[in-house]
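Collaborator request, handled under Task 6.
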Amino acid sequence: MIKVHDKLLQMGNNEVLLIESNVFFKELSDVCFFVVDDEDELNELKKVLNDIKTIDHNASIFCCTYGVDRSDDKVYIYCDNLWIDTFLSVEDLQFVFSKYDKENNSFRGIVPSYVKVLSEDDIINENIKYIIYDNGIINDYKKENEIIEISNTKSLLWDWMKIWYWPVKGFAAIKRRIE
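Structure tokens returned to the collaborator:
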């Protein structure tokens, strides 16, 4: 992954990326930050994503980032949107998360604010520059965009303002967001 880190340092600020979820949450976890940042919640979200892949073995999960933020020699990548290429419907995905969508559930923050089928306009509006795959390969998105089957891809978006107001385990997560 050193090659990926080096490439990230060469990217311009605000270049939007699609990063396979394993890379985002594991190999690049030192520079990638998801809107659900409580460690227990994030681990539970990863379990749910694994459950989705268990149901649909061919599912691909990408993190659609805000872009690359560079500060000095450091890179920061933020995400609040997952793109899941799956045969599962919007309703199926909502059902997978429904058990967490209870007022007193300590993992309520992992429930996406919105789940919808990705549209051509969504892809155009994102202005994606690169795709980073699990194997560390980085490709230009414009040359690869046919790999995303739009009609099968669902967008799961976490609205940070909505999450911010949800009860969380103490105020540590809110404090980290504010600081």
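The cover message to the collaborator said: "The two ends are 29 Å apart (CA to CA). Helices lie at 2-10, 21-27, 39-55, 90-98, 120-126, 141-144, 160-165, 172-178. Please let us know whether this matches your experimental observations."
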